[in-house]
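Much of what follows relies on a compact textual record of a protein's fold. With that in mind, consider the following protein and its fold in token form.
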Amino acid sequence: MSKQTAPTHSRIAAFWSRTPVVVRAVVVGFMVFAIAGSIAWTLVLTFIPAPWSVFVMIGVLWVYWRYFSGDWWPASTAEFRKQCFRSTALPAKAWTWSLIAALTAAILLQAILVVTFRIVEFPADAWKLPYDFSAIPLWQVWLLLVLAALVAGVTEEVGFRGYMQVPLEKRYGPATGIAIVSIIFTVAHLNQAWAGGVVIILFVISVIWGVLARVSGSLIPGIISHTATDVVNFSYWWTDIAGAFDKRPISETGLDKHFGVSVTILLFLTALFVFAARKTLATRSL
């Protein structure tokens, strides 16, 4: 290394170390997400036709997982990467309760959407993704749909609930860390046409996944929950591959049985998630 380069690197390192933790966490977390969640995913879809793009992207996710969980060079950052990935060994009971919480969270979001769109009209046109699947077989559509959900589940949980939330938890505490990440997560999705009417829901689900990561000490339950949620979202809410939501607002129909059952399910799932999250933390601490 030249004498001129060394002072430059030192100044950059010194500047970065003086940067507030919240800024560093947001920048690093967003970059970790974008590497595979935006950049690699876009390049693969653009230049590699289906179904080969599926296998290539699975390979990208494998490399992404290995590296950001702490494997490979450089050894100097391995421990930091393991911490941010939440590489925690959980007791069997904690795994059981964390998976119950994860699947409950995925269903809970759907219940929130159903109740929301019984109160206000479902903006079907704004929510439809601008993709034309007519040129490829249905089985390839499902492959791409599930892969898209997996890419989002892995990269957003690693980036937001891992590399962004872990440093914030350590510096500001769990509640503040989860809140900051949820704000950033919500803002990061505002470029989507469907996001405008569900800003609060985006924040709420991010809080739920943030709590899940915190109480379990692992990103895997959140990845499972996030992926399952997006499989439903991509196939039902954002396309009509798995059907379409056609219920009208209660302002038109009145308080009907469907709305009453939906609210009851929503309240039950909320209570179940809180219970499962508390059991996860308790069994993890045994």
